[in-house]
Amino acid sequence: MEKILIIGAGQAGVQIAASLRQAGFEGAVALVGAESQPPYQRPPLSKAYLQGELDMPRLFLRGPDFYEKNRIDLQLSTRVESVDLAAGTARLGDGRSLAFDKVAFATGAPPRRLAVPGADLAGVHYLRTIADSDALRPALSAEGTVAVIGAGYIGLEVAASARKAGRDVVVIEALDRPLARVAGREVSDYFVDLHRRHGVKFRFGARVAGFEGKGAVAAIALSGGELIPCAAALVGVGAVPETALAASAGLPVQNGV
Fold this sequence. Notes:
By secondary structure, the chain is an alpha/beta fold. It contains 6 helices and 15 strands. The protein folds into 2 domains: 3-108 and 241-248, FAD/NAD(P)-binding domain; 124-235, 3-Layer(bba) Sandwich (FAD/NAD(P)-binding domain). It starts with a strand and ends in a 9-residue tail after the last helix.
């Protein structure tokens, strides 16, 4: 029986598995993911789920019986450490090995990290997973300013969620407008006006030099020396395709697989 291994239990991974069955594939399908939750939709993590308006099961892309019904071996909390394409085996973090005839890499793109002093302080957040959103949510009900670094979709959505919760919000963006890489100026101006009408403050053309605080973030230092006080910070400055596993397996990678 032919065996297909899908590495990455996100939206792409589960859709590959579903499409295989829809196309009539009768072999074995293993879907392996590092997170503890089954495949889920990520957009609500910065909106309804972050705001507490959507519970976790409603994030899940498929019902609980989908995987058994379609004979998909879903393995959660399982990290693939290495892939040997010649041998057709994948070594897992728990020491086990999975055999495959074909493998699909659906490893996604984790957030781009800021390499600045203080980046490891408590209260500095990134947002990609359910766990990330759960960790950020208390900041929406705490006192103090929420600083958002990056005026892309994630940043603007978190800013809106924080304002809806009553927090003071400042968005720090290195470019001269939000969504600069994906939208025209008219769209950018619309979102600036919308957010400002709801009380969000913007700092354009500002670069982050570091985070300051004793154990937890208390301020963001800009490159010009200015300090912006905050009780929490969300960094949303893009994502980096997760290519390390594919590269270590000998596949050519260039900003993706």
